[in-house]
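How a chain folds remains the central question behind the approach discussed here. This step matters because it turns folding into a mapping between discrete strings. The sequence in question and its structure tokens are set out directly beneath this paragraph.
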Amino acid sequence: MNISLAHKIELKPANIQKGYFVRACGTARFVWNWGLAEWNRQYKTGSKPSGLGLKKKFNAIKKEEFPWVFEVLRDANSQPFSNLQKAFTNFFKGTSKPPQFKKKGIGDSFYIANDKFKVEGKKIRIPKLGWVKMTECLGYSGKILSATVSRTADKWFVSICVKMDITPTTCENQAVVGVDLGVKTLATLSNGEMIEGPKALRKMQKKLKRLQQSLSRKKKGSKNREKQKRKVARLHHQIACIRLDALHKLTSKLIRKYSVIVIEDLNVRGMMSNHKLAKAISDMGFHEFRRQLDYKSSIAGVHVIVADRWFPSSKRCSCCGEKHSKLKLSDRIFVCPTCSFKMDRDLNAAKNLEMYPELIAA
């Protein structure tokens, strides 16, 4: 089975190398914005623009009008057209929103093709720059497809995509587990184990508020404002890393211990529309949990079953099977009106999820 995975590694560039990264990101951002503006202009005139057509037009004029794009690698001014074509294709399919213009400092990155760079140990060779130190070695072995250099806060990262041919292993443990995700506890397992989430955003809310208030008082365009922006970005990055670490530990634990994992098909977008729960839900990272579980299970040979969105896991009694239709969100203890069975609401839902494969088979 072929699978593509990316290993994101922090870089340790020198100051001159940081300047090169900034110029490459600026070039990629400029080309994207130029292509998007030209696409919109041609579309309004009745033409049918394409990424390849825009690329040819840009290549014809870049030597005279934009000679500074030659200071960095070629992929920085060629790949944005492919990305733009893909973005509009997804938009016309209805799977994403229309492409937007990019702003400096937000999502800065540039692409490198697999034949343009080389990885040796804890360093990577980038065209027109040379060797750049990495904090760790590449963790995957296989065919290298591409690399993307990006910036988060004041740190630089390289994400190397590798295509591997793997044979899924057979899990010796045949245990089945139901996993109920929640806001109070990150995950409740059907065996009674409850895993607390780190709630990093909630714990650092006061510090984040203080930094953001200080940022709002800084004069726009000043160096002090830029310094404060980096402080806020570093804290956001720290919060994201804490959340990601907890989710990796949880998903790896589930993959090691169980051969069948049953989870809910949560409508995260709909849940986020509730302004009272949106912050707590985003702090848990439900979507990231599902993403990690999907790719790790495919490697380990673990079967992940996603219960139907309308399956009443919380309202169904795990003892007698009756549905408690009047159960409220504020009711944390499930009490069955038929058999008077009592259990924690999340644990009852997890047990129902564990029984889900048998219920649909029957």
Notes: The chain is about 45% helix and 20% strand. The chain has a mean pLDDT of 92.
